[in-house]
Amino acid sequence: MTDRFLHIEGVTHKRENVTVLRNLDLSTNAKRIGVVGRNGSGKSSLARLLVGLEAPTAGTIRVFGGDVTADRAFALKHVGIIFQNPDQQIIFPTVGEEIRFGVENLGQGKDAAHQTALRILSNFGAAGWIDKPIYTLSHGQKHLVCLMAILAMQPKFIVLDEPYSGLDIPTAGRMRKLLNGLDQHIMLISHNPGEFEGFEEIIWIEEGALHEHGPCDEVLPGYVTAMQEQVDQC
Ligand SMILES: Nc1ncnc2c1ncn2[C@@H]1O[C@H](COP(=O)(O)OP(=O)(O)O)[C@@H](O)[C@H]1O
Ligand SMILES: [Mg+2]
């Protein structure tokens, strides 16, 4: 179906002979998609496949019609990822360099990339950060830099892997507001059902397999009950 921006077909992924994702089939056109599942269920692995960082052992992933595994340039342009830990994402010593790098990779010249970085920083009330060393930033501020660096590249699909973990309540609240205001398709990975307010669809993964995919109000209550049952068994 071409009316869906994301198509995952027959995706299986193995690492060192361990199957981390098994025969995943799904498609969606939702703007806000949540991904839930226990630790180790394969959520982060799925995120890495969606942005083309790893190739699935079998199957295909199409985003806006492009094969993100086969076409890294397409994936870079159309899909952005925010890792759980900003220290695993940030590679440059200053905020400006970090933001410029992605847009330069997409073909902007140095001056244009600098202007893009300045613009995005001022949009987020951080106009003075351009030369700021990354090591002077808090964890939450580093998360914001990652988000700004991704937004500067204007991807139409953003995957966020546990973006709120490690953030204090006000910083998480600010991040949530920022994300709510975005026009992009957003996939939010979290094991916390409280983070999916206003979401359209939920993908529930168990042991690498698709357990359920559907409207938020149909899938989330079952997940919450299942997790509660596990707590009760402790
Ligand atoms: N780099 C890796 N090498 C080998 N196995 C890995 C690696 N990263 C994750 N795994 C394994 O893949 C499975 C899925 O992990 P992951 O996708 O991180 O799950 P989640 O994000 O849902 O916690 C787990 O069994 C984990 O141990
Ligand atoms: Mg994970």
Task: Describe the fold and architecture.
It is a single chain. This protein is an alpha/beta fold and about 230 residues long. The chain has a domain at about 5-90 and about 155-234: P-loop containing nucleotide triphosphate hydrolases (Rossmann fold), CATH 3.40.50.300. Helix content is about 35%, strand content about 25%. It has seven helices and ten strands. The chain has helices at about 45-50, 70-80, 95-105, 110-125, 140-150, 170-180, 215-234, and strands at about 5-15, 20-30, 30-35, 60-65, 65, 80, 155-160, 185-190, 200-205, 210-215. A six-stranded mixed β-sheet has the order 6-7-8-3-9-10, sandwiched between helices. A four-stranded antiparallel β-sheet has the order 2-1-4-5, with helices on one face. β7 (about 155-160), α6 and β8 (about 185-190) form a beta-alpha-beta unit. α3 (about 95-105) crosses α4, α3 (about 95-105) packs parallel to α5 and α4 (about 110-125) crosses α5 (about 140-150). It is globular, with a radius of gyration of 18 Å. The termini are far apart. The mean pLDDT is about 95. The structure holds adenosine-5'-diphosphate and magnesium ion. Adenosine-5'-diphosphate binds near residues 20, 39, 40, 41 and 42.
